[in-house]
Amino acid sequence: ADAVTTGRAVWLAEDGRKDAPAGAFTQDFLFDLGVPQFPTDSFAPVNDVRFEAGSEAVAVTIERPLGIVFEEKVDGIYTKIVVDEIVPGSNAEKNGDVRVGDVLRITTAVFNVPGVVDVTAWLNPPKSTNCKAFFNCEQKSFDKVMSAIQSHVVPVDTPDGPMTIGEVGLVLERPAKK
């Protein structure tokens, strides 16, 4: 089956920026976690993502394959996932919104959610479902973050059957220029 693209997996919420102490700020985002059959009721807000002073919040939707090389970098006691390279001719380069040095904060992902089993369903438990969701990359291992990005190859379950999502939503922090 062909992969479906919705055009926008994540975006900055209107009026979602709030000042924080020491020049930092928080930003709200909206993630489209649905599929084309449910375009109006499938937006999930992610509120108050904190960004450093002077940095920029970037929300980008890129078709797969991305064409981004990520690298794990140590920052004090924490690690962060940073854009190390943008592959020439790739979807990321064509998109134009990703830059070397951007820090990956959140990505969309596909998760397998087990069906809820209660007393009345123990003989015939519901099957698990693949759902599109967002994955917070903060303080996560490089392997877990890369697995979240790679999970987009797994079809999402819909009422019309499995559907492969053809794009990835990324929230990036563009550090202040030093």
Automatic annotation (TrEMBL):
Transmembrane segments: none
Source organism phylogeny: Eukaryota, Viridiplantae, Chlorophyta, Mamiellophyceae, Mamiellales
Organism superkingdom: Eukaryota
Protein name stated in the entry: PDZ domain-containing protein
Residue ranges of every copy of the PDZ domain listed in the record: 48-104
